[in-house]
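Suppose a classmate hands you a notebook page containing two proteins, each written out with its sequence and a corresponding row of structure tokens. How would you begin to make sense of it? This section walks through that situation. The first entry is reproduced here exactly as it would appear on such a page.
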Amino acid sequence: MTVMTLEHDNRPETVESRPLSPRQKAVRSLFETLAPQVERWAARNAAFHEADRAYLRFLVPDGASVLEIGCGLGDTLAFLQPSRGVGIDLAPGMIHRARERHPYLEFHAGNAEDPADLARVEGTFDVILLSDTIGFLDDCEETLRLLHRFATPQTRIIVSYHSRAWEPILAWAESLGLKMPQGQHNWLSTADTMNLLDLAGWEPVRREWRQLVPRKAFGLGTLVNRWIAPLPGIRRLCVRNYVVARPAVTEAPKTLPSCTVLVPCRNERGNIENAVRRLPRFCPDLEVIYVEGNSKDNTYEECLRVRDAYPDWDIKVLKQDGKGKGDAVRKGFNAARGDILMILDADLTVPPESLPKFYQAIASGKGEFINGTRLVYPMADQAMRFLNWVANRTFAQIFSFLLNTRFTDTLCGTKVLWKRDYDQIVANRHYFGDFDPFGDFDLIFGASKLNLKIVEVPIRYADRTYGETQISRFSHGFLLLRMVLFAWKKLKAF
């Protein structure tokens, strides 16, 4: 037994290394033997590994730092193109080959269930990846708990594993020499994995199932995996499952973050003053930005008047260069200085008085992307026409499936997120492109791809008191149908 001395917060801490259990020794021996053969096995099942890495690449943001537990030859870690990539594996033979294959990455031979071995890795990471590794751990809960040492509040842990229903098929494939031997491993469903994460202080934020046919099969497998495997009901039959989690929030923030309320406005002159007059001062540092969209009713002039009439408020007025709410949101958020960003539509059908609920939800850590929903409480009689209500309900169900997150109302204009996360959405916008004239889905899709914790805050939807709705049921409905197809392509069929 060796002893390692660490220092945390200027206090020495002695960590004793643990001897391997009989099972861990067996796992290490197996993969030491397999190390020279892994490339051959990977080539034999190239279609499966390519699809698996492609989805992991979707889950991991560009330029993220990544720690992989059970890295093997390091090929998956290298495929993710991390800004800093570190791999740990129990088998020294695997690590030796990984260093030869990927000399620009950092690799450690060690036991991820041993705090002393983990202590040799410095720093924190944006992503912690366990690809199949959870099946070989002696104590999954304790290991997941140990990995908090590498996490910040923004870290995401990704656990990928095979479906329990596929166990007989995988065992049969091993017996025929079609799959690399794995030895004895844990029998875990996605629900088991989520429970273990929860017990270890991680809050699951996403789960997904991929690959109904883990082979190309002359192109048929690719078509099935792209267009049929993601469908509701069928997807639970897939061989591969993924769970993404964040560190559970355990304490309130020590200081209240600042906030920017963005008010996109076009032909809303009669609502401009009420947007400020009715807005509670729900945090010590509150900024209001009007972004005016070339109105015909002197809305811009009214924004300037209100700014000057309320000198005790920090109000800015911007004039839109492009068209559409999406363009206004991007212009306003780029100019915002608040830690938290909020959208308040200038029609005020979402009451300004409800914004403190959104602030509380995000500042307390309950969520990282807060979406308003108008479809929980009864609404005012004229607030939403029947066809609009049906469309909103329908699209909410569709996007709940596409995003693997429960939504009751994707089209509510009030959306709240951290400025740091918005900056990440902007940095990764190339994946989706400039596709959204509404401004809602650019944020929703971006938040989903970043694996943010999405929660909804119900509000009481009010009648419009000035002006006319700028939503066209039919032309905008057609745009929404195009958005569904776009989302399927970018979020499911790849």
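The notebook's second entry, a different protein, reads as follows.
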Amino acid sequence: MDKLVIEGTRRLKGAVQVSGAKNACLPILAATLLSDEKCVIRNAPALRDIATMLRLLKALGMKTTADGDIITVEPTKGRKYLAPYKLVSTMRASVCVLGPLIGKMRQAEVSFPGGCIIGPRPIDLHLKGISSLGADLSIKKGYIIARAKELHGSRIYLGGHFGSSVLATANTMMAAVLAKGHTLIENAACEPEVQDLANFLVRMGAKIKGHGTPRIEITGVKKLGGAEHTVIADRIETGTYMIAAAITDGDITIKGSRLEHLTAVVDKLTEAGVGITEVKGGIRVRRKRNLSPADVTTLPYPGFPTDMQAQMMSLMTVTKGISVITEKIYPDRFIHVSELNRMGAEIHLEGASAIVKGIKALSGAPVMASDLRASAALVLAGLAAEGRTDISRVYHLDRGYEKIEQKLNKLGAKIWREKEE
């Protein structure tokens, strides 16, 4: 098992290329199950989660090939509908094969998903969406069993206790595109990743309107064809490098990103004293003044993303003053707090809020990653900390950040991998 080692207090400068969005690419790959023709996905990131999805597609009877950032998926004669525990249990996003399997094959057996430990993440909205289209569902031996002679369009409300769900919206949308009649999804997730999936489905021949709004309308078609598609840039990776520039008093140009996907993050970083400007081919990020505290509340898109909460907390630990970070998507998503405190941060939890009192500097220390975005937060803290930081369990990081140490070293960081003892 690898660990990352960082020698901090190096000012980052230069340009970095952002990879394709993991959270868009995964459901797009799952959507290839809806077609009997070849699909070509471009700008796919080289990540552990993408590799897991490709193994899952192979287990479902699809032929996959990867050439750089281009993935080709073709169906074979041996199509299957069982998504096994061994694969699905390692990655929560694997559950997004449920919609295309029931949509295309009218049957599916999908293991309950696994992935990061960031608090309860029920799949009730997934089941609600699929059952509303006419599928019979049952739970047996840890598997979701879905059967349908025919799917029918329906009016579906996908509101949950903490708002809309990206994967539930994706699953319902993928099942509905081959359902008979008209489907209306209300309180649909509006994230750019949902929009990207819908754009891919439209290229395949689906009839979808309203994606990017809380009201998605779908008219079912008899079949979908193959398509080529380029995945959008990863907005969370973009936001992480924005904070890398701010926390190191750096000057970074982030290539390939779309600023309109990060409005809430840009707003809070600007409030904190970070200068963000669009330049040819990307975004330039640097401090405009001394950092100021900023209160953050995570909300569904276009609100501040929960996947940027931990990284923003790292920045606030070295920002003079008091910041309050409130988590309204996953209220238990604070496992990184204890690790940041090991580095000298002063963070106190009060329910679903973290009270952060900024200090002059963090101190390098051995810390442990608990999930994907917590890993990124610890990397950012290590970049700013005095001395050496050792981050164990970085396999979490490899699920969502492509070649992060190479990209950071190119910007002037000193970061490398070692085998854990």
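A careful reader of the second entry would note: DSSP finds 14 helices and 24 strands in the chain.
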